[in-house]
Amino acid sequence: xxxxxxxxxxxxxxTLVATIGGFLFGFDSGVINGTVDxxxxxxxxxxxxxxxxVASMLLGCAAGAFAAxxxxxxxxxxxxxxxxxxFFSVSAWGSGIAHGPSEFMVYRILGGxxxxxxxxxxxxxxxxxxxxxxxxALSSVQQIAIISGLFTAFLSNYAIANVxxxxxxxxxxxxxxxxxxxxxxxxxxxxxxxxxxxxPESPRFLVASGQKERSLAxxxxxxxxxxxxxxxxxxxxxxxxxxxPRFRDIVGTYGFRPIVWVGILLAAFxxxxxxNVIFYYGSVLWQSAGFDESxxxxxxxxxxxxxxxxxxxALLAIDRMGRKPMLLVGSVGMLFTLATMAFVFNQSAVAEDxxxxxxxxxxxxxxxxxxxxVVFFNFSWGPVVWVLLGEMFPNxxxxxxxxxxxxxxxxxxxxxxxxxxxxxxxxxxxxxxxxYAVCAFMSLFLVLRFVTETKGLELEEMRG
Length: 464
Known about the structure:
With 464 residues, the protein is an all-alpha fold.
């Protein structure tokens, strides 16, 4: 094997390990999908308490993303990811063993801290070790990992519920199926911890923290003879007084620097288009549209498979097509598919139990539109926003900028998740999807006006 291939192989190894965090992010986010009925019955909770139990993880996600972004500049990317792996494991066990909503929420918030940390640090870490010419493709693996985690959670939920009879029935050892749905996550969580021990710290963190010898050793493994030149480039991209990264580096005239505001808006609109309604409430959504529990869970599996295919297409296109064009395609596609779903749901009759009564034609149109929406999202805003957040900020304040972008993303995610049951009860599925279509329309103008292309640029070329 040539020296260059060895360097590429090492980068790919690092990427695969880092994206286990993305897999856990997806699994932890998606596993709740099939457990909603179990939680409602086990805890005897109403729609408000159930909605908060589902969304409680997102509070931890917001805190975890914010804290991880800042702590990573002090203690390193890998060390914070190691802590997140421990939190994933504790949360998976505790969520399944919980006997009340308060206990359950504590474990879900703990898991949220891990998800929040992984969501911002995994793509940043990958960006900091990957060469510019295929950084977009490697960073896009994060979204494939997220969707693979979601798909695995959906498939696991479907299989466990089918074997048990339903999510409420006993699966094994006198424990209900919905509890086992959480415990499956222990396998990748433990694997993540030990895999992280095999990879090095980010060289750009090491340079910023003044650890020259360690940074050169890592750069040597990543790029061989070019290590010294890259070290000099990274160092020259930092502040002129060589101070370590700090939070106030992102402060600007209007609160934050303009590039940080762009990151915040990209992160928020990735959620405002409503993607996690399908991921978190997919089974509830399709049961509201007239499908039974088994078929609703099966639709989730189909959506997960379609998502992975779209992410693979994005991986192949991003370093050729560019970030901005892909976001534009996604915004237009999501606008039309969300508007189609809103129209179909608004035209459908409401049954006595409050669920929609779709005709065969309307049901098929809604199903096709929903999966096309998932395709457009996972070809564009899903992977591309993660890529941009990992690469668009200068080395000097990448961690701090990720902290505020992360809290914006998870705050928006929490808002969308906790308001969906309320929207469903007040204005119905049609009204909810119309609101998400409006956000897709707004995202189009955000990209046209404020997003700058980063394809092919080295991280040292990013300007604040």
